[in-house]
Prior knowledge:
By secondary structure, the protein is mainly alpha-helical.
Amino acid sequence: MSTFELWQPLSARQSGNEQWYEKxxxxxxxxxxxxxxxxxHDVDRSxxxxxxxxxxLRVDWEPGPYDEDSDPPTFxxxxxxxxxxxxxxxxxxxxxxxxDAYLDLxxxxxxxxxxxxxxxxxxxxxxxxIKPDHRKNLQQHLNDARLIYTISKDxxxxxxxxxxxxxxxxxxxxxxxxxxxxxxxxxxFLRSAWTATSALHPDAPRAYSDAIKAVxxxxxxxxxxxxxxxxLGTMLGELRKLPYRFTAxxxxxxxxxxxxxxxxxxxxxxxxxxxxxxxxxxxxxxxVEQARAAVHLAGTLVTWFATGIIQRQP
Length: 314
């Protein structure tokens, strides 16, 4: 969902300041706890009991004593207790992790029935449509609170909201790579880097590393096709040694400005990875901001290689 289609407070609209929040407000915490309790009723009980194990939460849901003349608690009663305990025991700072875990365990929303479906499939779809749409309700909570996190396209996790133009650029880059036979796993690396930066808990070093791998895979067949051990570093050496052998359709025609720009971009990406090797001094890990910048830069470079903007002369 585009962040630009969402309601904003009057003060934000007047100031032009599109404010997004990282932390869960007290009001949102209340809404999330209620959502957890309700959504828990549609998660399989055995799956529900995996949640505290995944997150290291200490909860107590053992049923209390019951009268000998009454029936013991049913599976449904136990699921209610588990759901209530999880929704109640988690501190506010753990709520997003809890919601993220629920999203992974909630049943997928059944697709709309087709006219060609058999009667049993139509019945299943009709029964599914009656159930509350927990993901839709959760998304409304996240939007109303203007939280920086949203539900992923597959509905299985929370991810950071991204500018629609950036998401479109990623899709364009991956589509271009898919049309380039010699791009190796460049598209997979680029998607992995993007996922690592947009996750609930971003992995900056992995994102930066995968961004470099994406460029290496896309550039290999153009810059050093005969070098089976080519890296971004060796490709930079090749470009600097033989710049006249390459052209880039950017910059002033008939000059080396285009390929010099490509070299500069690749050099920034290569030297910006501070965690590549270990040494006597403590490793400096890439920040999330640096990783996001690297992913955007890698997206531009792989698109240029995949679409033929950068070429090697015969």
